[in-house]
TrEMBL record:
InterPro entries: 4Fe4S_Fe-S-bd (IPR017896), 4Fe4S_Fe_S_CS (IPR017900), QueG (IPR004453), QueG_DUF1730 (IPR013542)
Cofactor(s) in the UniProt record: cob(II)alamin; [4Fe-4S] cluster
Residues given in the record as tRNA binding sites: K219
Subunit structure: Monomer.
Pathway: tRNA modification; tRNA-queuosine biosynthesis
PANTHER family registered for this protein in UniProt: EPOXYQUEUOSINE REDUCTASE (PTHR30002)
Binding of cob(II)alamin, residues: R59, D130, N151, L154, I165, S212, C237, D238
Protein name as catalogued: Epoxyqueuosine reductase
Co-factor remark: Binds 2 [4Fe-4S] clusters per monomer.
Length: 308
């Protein structure tokens, strides 16, 4: 009865805080993911993302992150916008339209944990959103929130894939959900549409070939062989999500902090080309886009525009 009560409380709190889905899995070692992660690293598909090489064991076992962990709570938070930036300009991934999602969702997770502490009592738990060695898509799939598609994104039948994934790991036993089944079928839209052929086979993405990697993670000069293949993306890339049939069910988010930053949302290509470091620092101070730093964004803009 206690597990049932605590589970109901957690799912109600997730809904109150605006998460579109909440699933719960039993904490333990991710046996199926271990060889996949090992193969990914062995083939150097991480590129310069060296942080993926660290904490191998922790990525596969949440009990190494939270003592006596019993449950992994997976949460989805919608970021699909009601309008997209001009097709005549350079392109920014939709997740970066508004305020940095780390800030927004961390605030919600802190409130979530505070509620659990006040209601359940003395618990040991940690909350994460894309900031720790947690295989978030694997845990979300294990808890029934969707399946990992051929583009390696988590996909959900009713809402697509334009959402952030967060986790809370707790030392509290709960009622556990069952995994969802795969509904990609024979579709290869994402594979066929990837501008850089980063989806090297169904369900396998070579991170070192992805436009998001090039425009955000790579600190060196962009490779000349990729010239003309970025399709005007200067921060991230949404192609494999935009073409996914399941995203026809995406609905606009209701999060005010994710509304587009109007300071840049109507920029023309000339505006982007003329951007100064002062304008960058002011415009993107609360945005995920600041991750590239001014030099990185300028490099991307000049590369896709043909200046470099």
């Amino acid at each position: 009865m206690r597990e049932e009560k605590h589970t109901a409380l957690i799912k109600a709190e997730a809904k109150r805080l605006g998460f579109i889905s909440c699933g719960i899995s039993k904490a333990g070692f991710l046996e199926e993911e271990a060889p996949r992660l090992e193969n990914f690293l062995k083939q150097e598909m991480q590129g310069q993302m060296s942080y993926l090489e660290r904490n191998f064991d922790k990525r596969l076992d949440p009990t190494l992150l939270v003592d006596d962990a019993k449950s992994v709570i997976s949460l989805l938070y919608n970021y699909y916008p009601s309008e997209v930036a001009s097709k005549e300009s350079f392109k920014i991934s939709k997740y970066a339209y508004g305020e940095d999602y780390h800030h927004v969702i961390k605030d919600k997770l802190k409130e979530f944990l505070d509620t659990l502490q006040n209601t359940i009592g003395a618990i040991n738990g940690r909350a994460f959103v894309d900031s720790a060695p947690v295989l978030e898509k694997a845990w979300a799939a294990k808890s029934g929130l969707g399946w990992v598609g051929k583009n390696s994104n988590l996909i959900t039948k009713k809402v697509g894939s334009f959402y952030f994934i967060a986790e809370i790991i707790l030392d509290v036993a709960l009622q556990y959900d069952s995994p969802a089944s795969d509904h990609c079928g024979s579709c290869t839209a994402c594979i066929d549409s990837c501008p850089t052929q980063a989806i090297v086979s169904p369900y396998v993405v070579d991170g070192s070939k992805c436009i998001s990697y090039f425009t955000i993670e790579l600190k060196d000069n962009l490779p000349k062989e990729m010239k003309g293949k970025f399709d005007d993306w200067i921060f991230g890339c949404d192609v494999c999500q935009d073409v996914c049939p399941w995203n026809s069910f995406s609905l606009p988010h209701q999060e005010p902090r994710f509304l587009p930053n109007q300071d840049w949302f109507s920029y023309s290509k000339k505006d982007w080309l003329d951007i100064t470091e002062e304008v960058f620092s002011k415009t993107f101070k609360d945005s995920a886009i600041k991750r590239t730093k001014f030099e990185g964004l300028k490099r991307n803009i000049e590369f896709v525009s043909g200046r470099k």
